[in-house]
Amino acid sequence: MALHPDRLLPIEPEARGIARRLFAEVETLPIVSPHGHTEPAWYAENPRFPDPAALFVVPDHYIFRMLYSQGVPLEALGVPRADGGAVETDGRAIWRLFARHYPLFRGTPSRLWFEHSMQAVFGIEDRLSDANADALYDRIAEALASDAMRPRELMERFRIEVIATTDAASDDLRHHDAIRQSGWNGRILPTYRPDAVVDPDRPGFAQALAGFTALAGEPDTWEGYLAAHRARRAYFRERGATATDHGHPSARTADLAPAEAARLFDRVRAGAADVGERELFRAQMLTEMARMSRDDGLVMQIHPGSRRNHNPLVFERFGFDKGADIPGPTDYVEALRPLLAAVGNDPGVTVILFTLDETAYGRELAPLAGHYPALRLGPPWWFFDSPEGMRRFREVATETAGFRNTVGFNDDTRAFLSIPARHDMARRVDCAYLARLVADGRLDEDEAHETAHELAYGLAKQAYRL
Amino acid sequence: MALHPDRLLPIEPEARGIARRLFAEVETLPIVSPHGHTEPAWYAENPRFPDPAALFVVPDHYIFRMLYSQGVPLEALGVPRADGGAVETDGRAIWRLFARHYPLFRGTPSRLWFEHSMQAVFGIEDRLSDANADALYDRIAEALASDAMRPRELMERFRIEVIATTDAASDDLRHHDAIRQSGWNGRILPTYRPDAVVDPDRPGFAQALAGFTALAGEPDTWEGYLAAHRARRAYFRERGATATDHGHPSARTADLAPAEAARLFDRVRAGAADVGERELFRAQMLTEMARMSRDDGLVMQIHPGSRRNHNPLVFERFGFDKGADIPGPTDYVEALRPLLAAVGNDPGVTVILFTLDETAYGRELAPLAGHYPALRLGPPWWFFDSPEGMRRFREVATETAGFRNTVGFNDDTRAFLSIPARHDMARRVDCAYLARLVADGRLDEDEAHETAHELAYGLAKQAYRL
Amino acid sequence: MALHPDRLLPIEPEARGIARRLFAEVETLPIVSPHGHTEPAWYAENPRFPDPAALFVVPDHYIFRMLYSQGVPLEALGVPRADGGAVETDGRAIWRLFARHYPLFRGTPSRLWFEHSMQAVFGIEDRLSDANADALYDRIAEALASDAMRPRELMERFRIEVIATTDAASDDLRHHDAIRQSGWNGRILPTYRPDAVVDPDRPGFAQALAGFTALAGEPDTWEGYLAAHRARRAYFRERGATATDHGHPSARTADLAPAEAARLFDRVRAGAADVGERELFRAQMLTEMARMSRDDGLVMQIHPGSRRNHNPLVFERFGFDKGADIPGPTDYVEALRPLLAAVGNDPGVTVILFTLDETAYGRELAPLAGHYPALRLGPPWWFFDSPEGMRRFREVATETAGFRNTVGFNDDTRAFLSIPARHDMARRVDCAYLARLVADGRLDEDEAHETAHELAYGLAKQAYRL
C-alpha cells in the first residue's frame, strides 16, 4: 500500500508531468488551517494522544458511520452512549473490528487520509487487515507514547503555520489564554460560533441564552442580546479570532425592522415561537451577524443545509454528530437576498458560503460569488471534501467565479493526525485540475504555478485575514 | 462496426491496461439478474422469438421514443393502439423505418446494446443502414427460427445463473410453477410487485383491490388487506421470490397509528380519498411493506420519481410505458424518515433505493446508505443505465457510501437478447472506474480485482439473498 | 499566450489525434448564428467600433461582474449609471483597470474568448498585463480605425453565413429594412422577442402594451392583443424572422379556456393582477405563442430560470443586465405540461428549451426532448456556455436525447468580435466529446465526422429553418 507518489494527479503522462511540477512547489508549503475542530486544550496542555482506536475510530464519524451502515453496532466501536449505557472500552478490540471491515473504505477519502497518516506519521506502509491488526496497533500505540507525538511537536512537524479552533459564543477561551501565556509560539486562533445562542431548536437553548446575556452583563432584551454578541465578538477578537461560523439548517436570511426583530426575540426567548418564527429568528441573526462583521471585520462563514440527527434511535442513544446528519436541497438565491441587500455590495465584508447541495455551485453559488463583492465560496465540505468532490467543485465553479472568489482549503477536522493528509489531498487535486487546464491550452504554466500557490496557501490567509 | 475489444475502457494506455486485466477476470462470470421484466411464459413454454422488428423495435420504449421524438408515428412502428386502431404489422416495413433512422441512436446506450446483440447473438458486424436493412432482417429472421434461439437455450448460452421476473401481487405464478414442474434446471424467480393493489391512482384499482383480498380469502378491511399481502408474499416466497418491488411517484413514506391507517384504507377502498390521501396511502404502504420485509426476509426495492404518462395524447392512444414517463425532482431525506425510523436500524432488513434524480445520489442517497444499516443503493436506472450514467454514479456515490452499500447491476429489461449486452456494459464501466482509482493511486490492484468481482457478481447475490 | 493549436481537445494522444481530424473538417465551416444580441444598426450603418474598452469591457457583463465581485466599482469601469451619475469615460483608464485584474479571468471562458479575439482579429499574442496594457490598447485602437474592422467586413472575414438579432415586438425593424434596401448580401434576420408586452412585471409594461395593440391597430382586448401578436409576427416574418424568443422567470405554461384567458388579460391590462395572476399570464402566453408557431412556422425559443436583478443597489444605480441575474431551480416537467398537451405531438412545431439549471438536463429535459416531436434542446446557455458546461451537456443529454434533438450552437452574444471565438470553442468541445466516443469504441469515426458537421453547421440551419 505504500503511497503512490503521483496519487490523485492526472493519469495521462503529459498532464501528470505538469501536475508534478506544480505540486512540487506547493507540497511543502506551510499549512494554513482557518476552519477546524481540534481541541484548544491540546495546544494548551500538550497531552499525549491515547490509543490507536481512540485516535482513529471512536471520534471519527466518517469511520464509524460506514461500519454502522454495514451492521456493526456503534457500541462495539466504543462510541459513547448518551444515556450512559455500556460500550466497548478495549481499544484493541475496537481496532480489530475496524481492521476486519477495512475493505469497506475502498474508494473513500477516509481510506486515503488514514493511509497518509499511517505512512507519514508512523512510517507504516502495510495495508491494515485482520492479519496485521494487532501488530499495527502495537506500533502505533508505541509511537503515541513518545514526546514527538504530542500536539505542539506534531504541529511543528506538520508545518501548521496557523490553526483556528471552533468555540462556543459563551466560551471563556481559557485554553487560548493559556497558550498565549505559555510563551509557545504556535498560532492557535478561536472562532466565534454562536449557534447555541442563535438557534432556538438546539436543546438547552433557553438556558444558553440566559447565560449568554448574563455573561456579557446585558439585559434579556433584543438590544441587550445584540450588545452581548458585540461584546463576545470583541472578546474573541482580542484573543486572535478573525472569523465567525454559523451552522444553520438553511441559508435563509431576513432583515426585519428593529421593532419587529425585538418582538420576535421576545417570543423566542419566552419559548413561544413556532417553527416558522424560529427559522425566521435564525434568518434574522445571520443578517445581524453580517452587519457586525461589517463593523468589526470578522469574516463570516455560513454552513447550511444539513438535516441533523435524521436517525431518532441513534440520536436518542448516542446524541449529536454520529453520522446521521443528511443533506437536503438548499436554496441560496432567494434565501440570501436580505443579507446581501444589507452587506453584499461592501468589499470590506467577507461572507464565505459552504454547501452540501452540489447543484447549487453552478446554478446559484458561483453566479452569486461571481457578482457580489462580499461573497466568497468555501471549499467542498463534509461529504464532498474528497478527490471527486473537489474536482467537481473546480470544474463547475471556476468558469463562473474564477479562483479568487474561492478561499483555499479548510481541513474542517477534529482528527489532528489527518490534517496534513487532507491538505495534501487538496493540493494534489487542485494541481491536477490546473495541469489539465495547462495541458489543453486553457492556462499558461506560469499562471498555473501562481494559482497553485494561491490555492494552497495565499487565498486562505487573505480571505480569513490571517 | 465490429465491437471495439476495449470499448468503454479508459483511453489512456496505462489505465486501459489495468482495466483490461480487471475485465478479463469478470467478463465471463455468470449473470445474476435480480430485477427485470422478461416474461415467465418464455421460460415455461420456450417459444421461438418472433421477427426482428417484434424483437428489437416494437416492445422497446428506448427505441420507439427516440424515433417518435423525430416525427416517426408510433403507428408506423407497430406499437399497438390501446383503442384498437390500425398500426403497421409488417415487420420488415418497421425494420426498414428503424434502419433509416438508425443514426439517431449515435451516442446512446440503445445503440451499444443493439450492436452487442447483433454481433454476439447473430454474428453480424455490419452497421445497420438503409442499404443493408433487408439483408440483416433476413439473417436475423433466419437465425430466430433455430432451436438455439429459444429462451432456455439462450439463457444457458448467456450464462444466466438466476433471473428474476416482476409479477403482479395477484398473479398465480402458473408459469413459475410450470418451470419447476418441467424439470428444467434454470433458476427463474418471481418478484412481488403490488403496485396495482397499493396505488389508488392506477386505473382499475378498486377492482384489483377487491380481487386481491378475495384471492387471499380475507375481508375487505385494513387488517384483511395486510393479511392478504402477507399471504401473497408467502405464496411468492414459496416459489422462490427473494424480493419485492415498488414503483411509486415519490419516495414518501408514512407510519400512521393503526386506527388512522385503517380509516385511510376505508376511504381509499371507497374511492373517497383525495389526492393527498392517496399519496399518504402509498406512503403508509411502503412502511407496511418494509415491516413485512423485516418479518419475512424479502428484500424491498423502491423505484420512485417517474411522472408517468406525461403525454395525454400518447397515453390515450397507446396506454402505459410508451416512452412518455418523465422524471422529476425526488426528495428522499424527508420522505424516508418514517420508514427508516421503523426499520432503518435493522441490519436484517434490506431496502434498495433507486433514483431518476441524479442530484439525490451525492446529496441524500449516498449519505443515507452510508449510515443506515438497512439501506443499499440500487444501480443507475432507466435513463442512467448508460456508460456516463454509471460512471457518474460511481464517482458521486462511492466516496460517501463505498462499494458495499451498492448492490451490483440490474439489467431491468424485457429485451431478452440485450441482457448480456447490458451486463457487459456495466462490467466494463465498473472496471474502467476501478482502473482509474488504481492508476492514480487510490486503490491497490488486488483490491480492484476483488471489487470488480463483487460488482459483477457477488454483491447482487448477497444483496438480493440469492 | 499564443493560442494552443490543440486547445480544448482531449489530452490523451490517441483521442487528440481523432479530435484533430474531426476539427480540421469543421474549423472553417461558415458560422450560423441563429440567436444573438448584436445591433442591427451595425449592419445597416457599418460604423467603426469605438475604443478597446468600449468594445471589450464596458458592455460585457461577463467581464465587469467578475471585476465587481473583487471590489472594482462599476463606475470605474465606465458602466453607465441609470440615474445619470458620473462614471469613468477614459477608455484607456478602464482598459488599464481591466489589465491590472486580468488574472481574475484564469479558468473562465471570458479569458479564452478574449484571447482568441486578440490573436485572430488583432494578431496579438501577448498576454494582457499591467506592463503591456498601454501598448495593446494602442494597437487595438489603431486597428479599429481601419475599414476592415467594420461590421460588414468582419462578418465576411468571420464567415458568418447568417446571423439573427433579437428585437422587441414593437420594433419597426427599420435597420433590417435598410440592410435589405442597401443591396448588401449579408443575411441578418430579426427575432420576435415579445417579453416587454407579455411580462406584466417588466417596468413600463402598461405603456408598452397600449402601444403594442395600437401599433397593430387592434383593440385593447384579449382578442385584439392576440391579433396584434399575429400581425407583428407576420411583420417579422416578412423581414426574414424564423424564430421567436421568450425570456421568462420560469418555464410555467398554461392553457386556459378563452373566456378565462380574456378575464386574466383584462386584470393584467388594468394593473390589477396579483403576483400569481401575472405568472399565470406569462404561462398562458407561452402556450398562445406555441399555437401561433404552429400556425406560422416560427421556431419558439424558451429561456427560463433567471432571477433577474438580484442586487437592488446595482439595479437602482445601473439598471438591467449588469451581472446580477442569478439562476434558480427550474421545473420543466410539470411546467410544460399544458403547452406540450397543446402542440407537443406536432412534428411541424419546434420549441427549443434552454436552461440555467443543469440538473434539469438529465432528469427532465433530455427525457422530454427524447420523446416529444416538437421539443429540441438548446445549447448550454450563459454561465454554461463554456468548455466544462458544454462537455457536461453532451455527457448528460446525449445518452437520452441523442444529437438530433439538439440544435447546434448559439453564440448569444452582443460582443461581435467574440463570435468566431465562441463558435471555435463549441466546435472544439464537441469534437473532443466525439473523439472520446470514438476512442473508447462508442462511435465509428465516419459517424463522428458526420455528427461533427451537423453540430457545427447543419443542425442550426435545420432547427431554426434557415
What does it look like?
By secondary structure, chain A is an alpha/beta fold. The first copy, chain A, has 2 domains: 13-48 and 150-463, Metal-dependent hydrolases (TIM Barrel, Alpha-Beta Barrel); 49-149, Orthogonal Bundle (uronate isomerase, domain 2, chain A). The first copy, chain A, has helices at residues 13-26, 40-45, 52-56, 61-69, 91-100, 109-122, 133-144, 151-157, 174-181, 205-215, 222-238, 258-269, 275-296, 312-318, 337-343, 359-369, 387-401, 419-439, 445-463; strands spanning 31-33, 160-164, 167-168, 188-189, 192-193, 243-246, 299-302, 306-307, 326-327, 351-353, 375-377. The longest helix of chain A has 22 residues, at 275-296. Chains A and B meet through helix 4, helix 6, helix 14, strand 9 and helix 17 of A and helix 15, helix 16, helix 17, helix 18 and helix 19 of B.
